[in-house]
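Hello K.,

You asked for the raw outputs rather than the summary table, so here they are, unedited. I folded two proteins back to back in the same session to keep the settings identical. This is the first:
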Amino acid sequence: MAGPAWLDRLELRHSAPRFYAGVTVLAALDGAMLCGLVGRWLVLPGLAVALVLLWLIAVHTGQRIALTLMFLLSTAVLFVLGLILVQDRALQQHGEWIDVVVTSKAQTRVNSTCELRRGDGAIVAGPVGGCRGARPGDRIRVFHDPEGRVPPSWSAPHVARWLWAAAGANIAFTACSLSAAVLGVRGNRRADAQRPGASGGRPVPPPPRNPPVSQ
């Protein structure tokens, strides 16, 4: 599918390997931004770059819905993994196991919440998802950040596990962008080769202005 004129000129002006390398580096860096690997403050700029890459895919893939859906899915996975990594990193650096008592519990249709009391009497919010099967008065054990920057967790942080998952999602994210770039360059090169005068053969000389008059 043909893109805007400036994009077609950009793709035709540079060699295909160089253009592919540029798109690959941009997409891989953007994936790292989306999952917060290069800083939490770069997540929103990463989403803006992802929209540009989505536009590139939409321009160059035509009716290939599968590639667009895979890109959107990998973008969502990277964003969610980024939220998990933020919590697990904070818990890994500052968290510790603590014994607490469930003071109250509330259940809704989609979620459950609870409050916990530490040994010093301080009240903290319970883990995301509530206190499972615990009831008020029960003693439970959670992994807690004393500074309260992230909510407690039922398990110890597993940063390495989430990093591997983010790497896999980033590979899919980058592969979608690179595939769209390949389709775009091939389509432009094919269209350029079909234009008149683009065959590469010897140019045909123009006819003389004043042809000789036959006698």
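The second followed immediately with the same parameters:
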Amino acid sequence: MSIAKRRRVVLLAAGVLLPLPWASGCSSGGDDSSPAAARRDVATAARDRVADTGTLRWALDAAPGTFNAFQTNADSGTQRIAGAVLPSLFTLDGQGRPQRNPDYLQAADVVDREPKQVVRYKLNPKAVWTDGRPLGAEDFTAQWKALRGADGAYWTARNAGYDRIAKVEPGDGEHEVEVTFAKPYADWRSLFTPLYPKSVMSGPTAFNDGRRRGLAVSAGPFMMRSITGGTKSVTLVRNPRWWGDRARLDKLVFKAVPVKDRPAALLAGKLDLAEVDRAMAERIQDAAEVPKKKGKAEGKAQKAENGKRGTDEQAAAEPSAQHGAEAGTDLAAGGRNAADSMRAWAEENSSKEARAEKAALRRLVVRKALEPAYTQLALNGTKGPLADERVRRAVARAIDRKDLAKLVLGPLGLPAKPLGNHLLMAGQQGYKDHSGALGGKDTHAAQALLADAGWRAAPASARQKALGAKTDDQGRDSGRDGGKRDGGRGAGPDAGDAGRSGRAPAAVVRKHGQPLELRFVVPTGAGTAPLGKVSARIARMLEAIGVRTKITKVSGSGYFKDHIASGNYDLALYSWPASAYPATDARPIYAKPQPAADGSLVVEQNYTRVGTDQIDQLFDEAVAELDSGSSRTLVSRADARIWAAAGSIPLYQRPQLVAARKTVVNAGAFGFATPRYQDIGFRK
């Protein structure tokens, strides 16, 4: 965590997303040249079409270590539960834009800019905590004092924004709160969400330890009823003091279920909603395929069920839907008639257990969207060849990002386009592709950059001579078994890569006699299979410019601590969640590392160690600029400079795959949108 304790953004090394629903939501104007985005996939239903009863079981990645979302050990479970039981003053729409939440706010505006920025909140007079006390200035004051960073006794994960506040006080009107800033803050809408009661924030002991076993006081459509198994199962029930739309569910149960155990839990009817990996998504979709001999009527019914999607984001998702219709629902595609016949035969001749499993799978549906997170290729710029910007740029110019996006997203029927921005995702208003600041795939340009940096292939005569020596003309040890390199030097192609280019790898480049070899660290474990394929494909691309890779596979538990955070890598694949407030949230990720008094390097969350003073300045100006258009322009300029520095190469937005019982409505692959928990339930 950064010394400055800026707003926490969580590293995604494996296949698990840790969304920050209240640390996101940027309103960006201007030209929206984003790729066609599947922003969300939710089966929407009007409240009168949702049963006024039921229990929904929702999988979490792990048991929450705390219910205080501002502590360092808060996780996705903490955030998901807080969203259902605590005030969110601003929620996010499908484009990641903050929207005033009328359940808590009648108004929230900047009422003064000079001499100080003043924000006035007019609270909903009906909003009360479960102990009957109205939400008020004392809750805002307690949260500000706990999170501003002035008292190290509070174990806070972040203080961004709160450290810019000068004072919090009651407004002139009833139910009004006024916040005066010492320094202008463009992202003021990110503050006080979630809002905790003053009892949680009143002192270090209450803040640090008091919320590890539950929340006695809350103010959402749900409230905590019970916690079992050491927080492995958290049961929420309707809040009897809730003043808004009544929750449709009787109970909302969050259960900690590892990804690998979710297929069995879903098939056994023990879960109703869970993010799943690609393998499980394919099983569900394969089971949904209806063989032709079962008749057109059943096929149409199945297609209609699979086609039910949220209407509020339908326009944004239409390009993806069209792509899916053209490609068909069979992820493998091709040979449709033969496949239909084979499935019909298999069903008629399958065992009782297989038929039961097929029936269970058909009770589920896959909701899929582009997640508000992206996978990047990180280039460690602190040492070795990649300390030279020309080498980093050469590596970037060798990468075919379109090919990698197609590899991961294409089989899922999602828009297979590379991401062109570090700070805004496809679908966010204001998204612009700034990858031109670095340049696209160009093998000759990459080789020219390497040559300029002193890395050149040996002359043909020297390469011929090498054939009889210890290394071949690609710089590999001739004693190795046929070039098998899985986990060793270089990387063999993944399935389907063989013969892709039809050309042999380029001769390895050298400088002062040493080959250019990069250590490529890749995580293993649940959810990382796509990264294995991507790393193999990247290694093959780098071979084309004479760069050798040594792939090192690391278990997920030690991947971040022992390699990414410590800088023990040259190349790495990991993901960052997107933010709706990039001027605040993204700065520590791209801040220029600074030397510490002990000689070490303070990198904050910039694990590539690549940054510039200009990038820092643009972020600082953007976060202090109250004119939204000017602030967006500064953020856009920062992204172009991040591309030019070539420390982080965005590859693609991650796919979000959610398995849901077919009767579940108003929940699924939410994308950027904040769930409206009181509307979630089962179709009547």
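Confidence is low (pLDDT under 50) at residues 1-37, 292-333, 469-502.

Happy to rerun anything if the numbers look odd on your end.

Regards,
P.
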